[in-house]
């Protein structure tokens, strides 16, 4: 009963509170409902503005995209004037990515206009690619630009072909110019093909080499060919290597490897044949006057420079052997010419004998002939050692070659044979005159032993000649 009374008391309290506060609760409920309504309206307003913003942003993006396309032809023309090919490539790639598959006729028309301009750019780049001379760096850049502009050809291989042809044309042009000038000069020199020998017969070899002034046409031809090889051939080789290893941003055609090898050999064989024709008189096709002896060391140096350029590129042995063979033959030719020139100078000693005598306690009285002979031989030997016998990298040593050794022995034997003939002719020639003959000792004072007179008698000359022979054999040899 107590619990029932408690419940009844609570009920009475609740009813009294409800009657007392009913108006306030209604106001709170109304405020809450109003707040909920306002919040809902605000939320829908934000959503609406967001949708409008996205629509506006999309519209602006579309307008920007279309503006880029519509202005692309003008931008391409401006970039062509500024030579900004990289910018053109980027814009062209972007246009294809955005509108390449469009079906809108207006866009397709603009893309066709852009494509026409790109075709013209490709043609201009190909024209620059074919223009020579140019550097390897420029060619690689042009090739990459053509590839980026979707060129349908093989710009890398085209560059190789044109560079090879340019080198061949330059080499042949130099040779043709030499032939033309040689033919023009052939008629005046028809009856005297070696006029320089006549005037330089009694000039020493070293003096002739030091007297180089104006280069003959054939030497200029040799120099020009060497310059062409050193300036352009390395770029051709490197361009080919870059092409076949795929460094030119294009997939290489491996079927061209054999063709490239033939190109390299063609250039080297052409150079070798021209050098042989110009410098080696044993060549069957050589109908021109030989290179003057004073220019042979220079020519040998030029060919060696070509060989050094080729060796630095790590070319196949087949190619290197072509030039190496020319160098060996030219060295042998230079050796032959040097000693033949010395042999001719030795023959002329018979005309320069003045019978100025020196007395040697052991060898007797000698003239200047042995010393003159020794100077000529040593000069030829020193020049041969400096320019010919000394072999450089990958060159065949002459001293290890049987042909070269036999040739050298014959040449030296010829010099000594000629000197023996000079001694015989001078000693047995009773008509040789000598005025104011004196006999000098090694100390420089006059000695007696011959009857001094204006002219030596035949017996005295014969005795001096015998002493000359003994002195040459016992002292100089």
UniProtKB/TrEMBL annotation:
One CC-aspect GO term: exocyst
Compositional bias per record (Basic residues), positions renumbered to this chain: 191-201
Location of the region described as Disordered in the Swiss-Prot/TrEMBL record: 182-201
Keywords assigned by UniProt, alphabetized: Exocytosis, Protein transport, Transport
InterPro entries reported for this sequence: EXOC2/Sec5 (IPR029175), EXOC2/Sec5_N_dom (IPR039481)
Biological processes, Gene Ontology terms: exocytosis; Golgi to plasma membrane transport; protein transport
Domain Exocyst complex component EXOC2/Sec5 N-terminal, first and last residues per copy: 4-476
Keyword Protein transport: yes
Keyword Transport attributed: yes
Coiled coil residues, start to end: none
Self-association state and partner proteins as the record states: Component of the exocyst complex.
Function noted in UniProt: Component of the exocyst complex involved in the docking of exocytic vesicles with fusion sites on the plasma membrane.
Family the entry assigns: Belongs to the SEC5 family.
Protein name: Exocyst complex component 2
